[in-house]
Amino acid sequence: MYGRTQTIAKHSVSPLKVADVMIKEVIAVDSGVTVKQAVHFMNKFEIGCLVVLNKGKVDGIVTERDILKRVIGNSRNVDNTEVKEIMSRPVWVASPTTELETALQNMLKQKIKKLPVVQDDKLVGLVTLTDIVRLQPKLLNKFKRLVKEDTPGRIQRVVEHYIS
What we know:
By secondary structure, the protein is α+β, with helices and mostly antiparallel strands. It is built from 6 helices and 5 strands. The longest helix has 20 residues, at 129-148.
């Protein structure tokens, strides 16, 4: 026998889930709120969308684009128009346990940038394309930090070459 064989313990790396990146503090409004009230909330909290609820369940989503296109573009009165009249629907949702890759694939397929997260018919979060894009640099930085700890130089050089 020329050499010894060692078995490396297999560590299962679980895929990222929607819960790992979702925003938990989601601003939601009732479907009967006026567009003027919705805009007030969006400005107050400096956000680009509101999840719309009907009897406590996610019913739609209203975005800045919805307001521009369906209210301003059509010269509708912001005081008399309710968000249920202009919101985007049907609304696509994910659960916190949905794999992030699956959620991203669905978002791209449906051409949506914001995905409410629902568990037991209750809104528990929101994940956006921006959240997902911001995640990649954090993962790469974590990887770089891990590699620096007691890693042979040849591995460090590979990482430095491909992740600068």
